[in-house]
Design goal:
By secondary structure, the chain is α+β, with helices and mostly antiparallel strands. The chain has 2 domains: about 5-60, 434 Repressor (Amino-terminal Domain) (Orthogonal Bundle), CATH 1.10.260; about 80-330, no CATH class. The protein contains 12 helices and 10 strands. It has an 8-stranded mixed beta sheet, with helices on both faces. The protein has a two-stranded antiparallel ribbon with strand order 4-5. The chain is globular and about 75 Å long.
Amino acid sequence: MKQDIQTVFFERVKQRAKSNISLVDEIADLLQISNDSAYRRLRGETAITLEEAAVLSKHFGVSLGEISPGKSDTVLFGRSTFRDQPLEFEEFLTKTSEYLQRIADTKEKHGIYAAKDIPIFHHFQIPEMGMFKLFFWLKTIRANQAIDAVKFDFNIIPPELMKKSRALAKIYFQIPFTEIWNEDTGNAALRQIEYFHEAGWLANKSVALKLCDAFEEVIRTIHNQTETGFKWFDGKQVHPDVPFELYYNDLVGLDNSIFVATDQFPVSMIGYNELDYLFTSHPGFCREAQSFLQKQISKSMLLSGSSERERNKFFNRIYHKIITLKAKIVAS
């Protein structure tokens, strides 16, 4: 690797390394080299190999694409995914938490989230809704054979899985975010509850009604965040204050894309397969993603702060859909 590129690469590594761990020791351990050899690589006296760069890139979350000189139509992405096993999902949650924590640990940060569906972090606030979403992903998206014939109830999700899910959510709520929703953003979870009820995949009617109540709690929490302009977690405002904005856009289709600007690095994330995502810090790609999302904000209606009339109209439509679904379940 060229020395100038290597210098930039290690600058990115230093930005994302944990402050309580010796970077030299960590690099030496990862590359299985001596501390002296690690020092020489950090100082640029010894060039790192492509294999070493790949190891460090994966561990520290540094995309090689973000340090490529010049213009290029090629963008390198990292990937966060899991297949169909709960243990793999625990690992997915752990890795995602580590990645978000690097963002949360920066001094200056702000994210934009174009939410096709309600961001999963909001669901994890309410245990019953979080359990249902985990079951939904494993049963339908990943088609886990072990639960193929299992009906959902609130005692089948391992406590450790919920604990890690909520830990991930808490990190998200440390990062200031502007979320963009459209009319359909809040509908996905309701459709899932209705489908599971009609398909007989819920233990009983009572579970379906409790899920509706849990979803209403999710919406009321987001409503409170939108009204106050700050993030809430577990029914109270996050401290120190973490800004939150919600915009309504029913013009452009949203795709669960995320952009985060920090004082150290940009991050662009693209959701796919319902829960998986690709991520990159490629400068050109991030600039384009940021520009696109900012244009969507400019064409959207602010629901936060003093926009009480439009905010209440928007959330009341969701509350009405919840009431309608509950009545349909009771009558079934």
